[in-house]
Amino acid sequence: MPRRRKKLTPNQQAYKKQITRIKRAIQRTESQGFTIPYNIIPETPKRITAKSISTLKSITPASIRASAVEYTNPFTGEILTKAPKNYSRIAKEYYAQSSSSPVASRKELSINIIDNYREHISGYKYNTKRNKINTDIYDEVNNWLNNLISQKGEIEVAQMLNIGYQEGQWLSPSEAYDELKLTKSLNTMMKYLGMDDSEISKLNQLLE
Q1: Which of 62, 74, 55, 75 is nearest to 36 (CA)?
Q2: Angle ∠(93,94,96) on CA atoms, nearest 5
Q3: Torsion of CA 177, 179, 182, 185, to 10 degrees
Q4: How far is Cα 143 from Cα 76, in angstroms, rounded to an integer?
Q5: SS3 of residue 60 by DSSP
Q6: What is the 3-state secondary structure (H, E, C) of 178-199?
Q7: I need a surface site. Which of 1, 38, 88, 133 has the fewest CB within 10 A?
Q8: Could you tell me if 105 and 98 are in contact, meaning their C-beta atoms sit under 8 angstroms apart?
Q9: What are the angstrom distances between the C-alpha of 26 and each of 8, 38, 55, 59, 77?
Q10: Rounded to whole angstroms, how far apart are CA atoms 53 and 121?
Q11: What angle do CA 98, 102, 103 make, to 5 degrees?
């Protein structure tokens, strides 16, 4: 006999309604080019009270935009620490010119961000004759990126890269050639995706 679902209390229903509202607001905000912190929604408390519901009600579209770690121009993929005042018009123009759905457009934006990262790590290709360095660090990081995309998808990885950029995890070439520093940086970004130590360890093998 199927188990009956436990009936939600009025507070639980109200809490669930607020969570749904916030998630929709976050999705709208992200579609405008903003990167929202993964921890903006508080953890669900063991006991839901009027105070916890009030906390969720205080999370408004304006506060969500204010919490953004950065803004990405949907046309160019350029990452900025602060959105321009006309961000709303830019988003409308972008979707107006796109024949695809907002989800597809978000994917296109993600591809732009990933391409920016690939261009950044292309700097890891040193001129071996001039610098007397024989290394394949670019290939290793690029392989790591490709495997991560195949596992998590372009949208999730692009969001990870956006947070990583804001947190200073896009290493310069000289920093990237420090093996410990590079591994720590990539591990930090993978944790933005909620990956556990086992998943991280498997991808780290690509850097060995």
Answers
A1: 62
A2: 60
A3: -150
A4: 24
A5: coil
A6: CHHHHHHHHHHHHHHCCCCHHH
A7: 1
A8: yes
A9: 25, 10, 16, 10, 19
A10: 44
A11: 120
CA–CA distance, 185 with 182 (Å, rounded to integer): 5
Q: pLDDT tens digits for 147-187? A: 999 988 888 888 888 888 878 888 888 888 888 888 899 99
Place of tokens 């839901």: 48
- Look up tokens 């770690």; give the residue: 69
Helical ranges in the chain per DSSP H: 10-31, 50-57, 61-66, 87-97, 102-121, 128-131, 137-152, 154-166, 173-176, 179-192, 197-204
Euclidean distance between CA atoms 141 and 179, whole angstroms = 11
- Look at the chain and count its residues: 208
Q: What is the pTM of this model?
A: 0.51
Task: Name beta bridge partners: 80.
Answer: 71
Task: Note the pLDDT tens digit of each residue in 101-120.
Answer: 554 566 777 888 888 888 88
First-to-last CA distance in the chain? 52
**Cα–Cα distance measured from residue 81 to residue 72, given in angstroms and rounded to the nearest whole number:** 9
Match 């972008």 to its residue by tokens. Answer: 94
